[in-house]
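Tokens as discussed.
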């Protein structure tokens, strides 16, 4: 099933929440030369990320990643009255410091609901590739939804050659 209707609205709301409320954390370096990333993702309500009309949802990213995050595909895997699991693909267009390009990811999203209100939501995004300075990038980024509609993210990005 494609992400439409109730799930699509929830995904859009989650994205907006992730973009709002940037966390000003400078990128750190791990022993594996991966850069630690963290910040805030909020739904794009301003139209700043309107350059991808085929996206299911678009979000503004702040913190370590500056730019736009897009949900490209999504499929329900398990749906119940109190929650669901979905998978799909997303991509980020923007910069990590002075490194700019596109990051491609897959995602697994889980959420629980009380009535029509999200009680808990999170998603895991393994990085599957990139372009520009992100060509050959690896790592993963995890998002945690906030009841306000934004989401915080934390993860690691290893650029090729670092």
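Sequence:
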């Amino acid at each position: 099933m494609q992400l439409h209707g109730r799930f699509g609205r929830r995904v859009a709301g989650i994205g907006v929440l992730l973009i709002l409320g940037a966390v000003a954390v400078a990128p750190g370096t791990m022993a594996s030369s991966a850069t630690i990333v963290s910040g805030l993702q909020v739904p794009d309500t301003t139209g700043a990320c309107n350059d991808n009309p085929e996206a299911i949802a678009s979000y503004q990213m702040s913190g370590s990643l500056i730019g736009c995050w897009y949900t490209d595909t999504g499929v329900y895997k398990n749906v119940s009255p109190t929650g669901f699991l979905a998978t799909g693909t997303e991509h980020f267009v923007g910069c990590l410091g002075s490194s700019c390009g596109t990051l491609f990811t897959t995602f697994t999203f889980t959420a629980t609901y009380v009535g029509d209100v999200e009680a808990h939501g999170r998603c895991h995004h393994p990085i599957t590739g990139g372009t520009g300075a992100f060509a050959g990038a690896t790592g993963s980024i995890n998002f945690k939804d906030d009841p306000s509609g934004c989401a915080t993210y934390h993860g690691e990005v290893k650029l090729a050659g670092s």
